[in-house]
Each structure stands twice: as C-alpha cells, then as structure tokens.
Specification:
Layout: H1 3-19, H2 28-33, E1 39-43, E2 49-55, E3 61-66, H3 71-88, E4 100-103, H4 112-125, H5 128-134, H6 141-152, H7 156-165
Parallel strand pairs: 1-3
Antiparallel strand pairs: 2-3, 2-4
This protein binds zinc ion.
Length: about 170
C-alpha cells in the first residue's frame, strides 16, 4: 500500500475517533455506524462471505455481516466495509446496487482494495496511539496480543497482525 493511502486511512480513522468520542471497546454499530447513517444487519451468507456493503434505491448505505461469525469477526467486518465506503465509493448519490463482497480469502488475495479496507479496519479498531498507550512494555508479545485483543474487542489474530505491522516483535 502506498504512503499516500496509508496517511489517508490514518487521517479518516483519527477524525472518526475524535468526532465520535470513541474508546477502545466502542460499540461500532451504536456509536459509529448508526450515527453516520448506516443500517446494519446480520444476515445469512454462505460461510466464505463475511460482509457486504450495499446501497438501497435512494442511496443509503447498508452493511451486512455474516450472522454465523464471532462477535470479533463481525466487528472487524463492519469496520472493513466502512473502509470500502470511505476509500472506494466516491459518490453517495449513485443508484446502482454496488456490492463489495469480502470473503475468507481476502487477507491472502492480492486485491489492493481488500488490503486497503483491512488497513482501514485495523486503524479504526486499533489506532496506533491507543495501542501505544496500552502496550505493556515488560510483557511478552504473546501476553500483549492476548490482553490487547480483549481490550479492543478484536480477535487475537487481528491484534497479532496489527502489533507486527506497528513494529512490535518478540524481543
Ligand atoms: Zn472487502
């Protein structure tokens, strides 16, 4: 991902934290998506699909997540789809039912949009500044992954990737 996109993602997510007074355990539906005008639904998808962003006939955004996924996974999916909204959908007035599907392989697929939406979700759910405030310097990486995943309501896998990307590695 290029630096410009990375900066854009950091800027948008930092503004959302500030404007909505978010805290690490924020409720993404009630404290963010609903106030932003998104309808959120848990629906039955096939197992390989974890979320979608669609627009109704008057252009209102709806984010659907797979009801069979864990709470942490659903939360990440909501954040990921919000990323597509900010990064890949320029106009809100389009009447087309534009659908972005996120499937289980998206973290390994070389799809730039998927990588960017995942980076958006990571920055939204685990902002660097908040991680730095909460990291336990004297604990192992493993202990930090476990504790911070609970603190930020994300999966340990998501937190492990985030800490790694932020440069935290086992001493
Ligand atoms: Zn996606």
């Amino acid at each position: 991902m290029n630096k410009f996109k990375e900066k854009t993602i950091q800027k948008i997510t930092a503004e959302l934290w500030e404007k909505h007074y978010l805290k690490p355990k924020f409720n993404i539906i009630k404290e963010l998506l609903n106030p932003l005008g998104f309808r959120c639904e848990e629906v039955e998808f096939k197992d390989s699909v974890s979320g979608s962003l669609i627009f109704d006939h008057i252009g209102n955004p709806i984010i659907c997540v797979n009801l069979k996924n864990s709470d942490a996974r659903k939360r990440f999916s909501y954040a990921h789809e919000l990323g597509h909204f900010y990064l890949h959908h320029e106009t809100m007035t389009v009447n087309v039912e534009k659908i972005f599907y996120r499937n289980a392989n998206s973290s390994s697929v070389e799809d730039l949009r998927e990588i960017e939406a995942n980076a958006f979700a990571a920055n939204l759910l685990m902002p660097q500044a908040e991680i730095e405030k909460n990291i336990m310097e004297n604990e192992s990486l493993e202990a930090n992954v476990e504790a911070l995943a609970k603190k930020f309501l994300v999966s340990e896998a998501a937190m492990a990737i985030r800490l790694n990307n932020l440069g935290y590695t086992e001493a």
